[in-house]
Amino acid sequence: MATLPVWADWLISFFILLGASFAFVGSIGLVRLPDFMSRLHAPTKSTTLGVGGIIIGSSIYFSVTTHFSAHELLIAIFLFLTAPISAHLLAKAGLHLHLKMIANTQDLRKKPEQFADKESD
Fold it and tell me: Dihedral sign, CA of 36, 42, 45, 47?
């Protein structure tokens, strides 16, 4: 087992704890938030940051102990490309199914004229 320098231990620990904190907050949001759109927002944003922090810590560890590996970089690219796309598809499905929303959730479909492009005369 390789012995890491102290700076690497601290840096790796920081990123792993940061990522775990984000993932934990996203998990709590998934359980505690009141409607589908709110529940969708919590894990997609914070869990993506959480996995990103853990991947940064992992890439630092493997760069210091052995050699640079592209596995972590490929995982990060795959995650940051697929998470927003899947969240968008889930949100569109929720809109099409007319899932119940609480009063504080903004439904921009109710007043589309507010967001339409206005022609300047």
Answer: negative
Q: Cα–Cα distance between 31 and 38 in angstroms, integer?
A: 10
Roughly how many angstroms between the first and final C-alpha of the chain, as a whole number? 73
Residue closest to 51 by CA, chosen among 70, 79, 71, 84: 79
Backbone angles phi, psi at 72, to 5 degrees: -65, -40
* 7/63 Cα distance (integer angstroms): 13
CA distance 31 to 39: 7
Q: Which amino acid is at 112?
A: P
3-state secondary structure of 107: coil
Q: What's the predicted TM-score (pTM) here?
A: 0.73
Percent of the chain with pLDDT over 70: 83
Angle at 119 between CA 116 and CA 121, to 5 degrees: 155
Q: In 3-state terms, what secondary structure has residue 28?
A: helix
